[in-house]
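step: validate -> pass
step: tokenize input -> pass
step: predict -> running
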Amino acid sequence: MELNVRTASIKRQRRSKVSGLLWKVSAVVIIVALLAVTARLAAEKFFFKNSEYSLRHLVTHLNGVMSEEELIALTGFAEGKNIFSFDLDQANRKLAALPEVRSVSMERILPDTIEVGLERRKPVFLFAATGGGAGTGAGAEEEGTGEAFVPGKTYLCDRDGVMMQPARLEDTYLHLPVLKGVNETGAVPGKHLESESLATAIRLQQALSELPQETFSIRSVDVSKPYAAVVTDASNARFTFGTLGNQDLPSQLERLRKLLDHCQETGRKIDTANLMLARNTPVTFVLTPESRSSKITPVTTSKKSSRR
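step: predict -> pass
step: emit ->
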């Protein structure tokens, strides 16, 4: 009898402890829920439904990537909406997915402003059309290859080899160097194109961009040959660079600088130059009417002397 009484007492104590713990947990859960509801109502009252936090100023630095109307259509940043209702992370991802966008900055500035900044990818090459379709590139019309730019079809790339297919023409595109000899198979707008020929052309373009633009301006680059790249400048002079691993690009650039200095001093114009050779660099110059007349002196003969 005494043992049964002790066992029943222990069970009652355990049930009392469990019941007290459940009441405490329930009280904590109720308090947390009430605090959450209160915080939510306070947030809606003071932030989400507060007219002071309505979007009134959309500050944009778009750098020509898109218009402000296109930005609003893509992100939903409409004036009058509460600035806390916008999902900035989602808007950031949408903008960053555009091929022409290099980076995005976005900030919510209380009480009524959102600031958006876009860094634009700067194209360094305009791809020449492959096959028998419409040609592309600055000066394409002069070479008889058709249109200079086909919206939505012509590829451009930046210094990182990221491909772009702009839907509209801009004047700057027509002044880009035309790239020839790169296989565009597998090219995806906004993605890097894995191509050794493209990497070679970009390295060469970056090196040549250090030259003064008034003395040397690239018109086109042809990397269709695996061992050489042919660069045509604004005067239609053709310069051949070696592109194999054992070719020293800095020394080839130094030879080019010497040739350009010689042309500035003498007034001569280069037609072709093979910069692959370290010694006795093969160079041909454009023959002017003056140089032709000094080399060839026509002999006039009378009819009588010609008969004799």
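step: describe -> Residues 2-48 form the longest helix (47 residues).
step: cleanup -> pass
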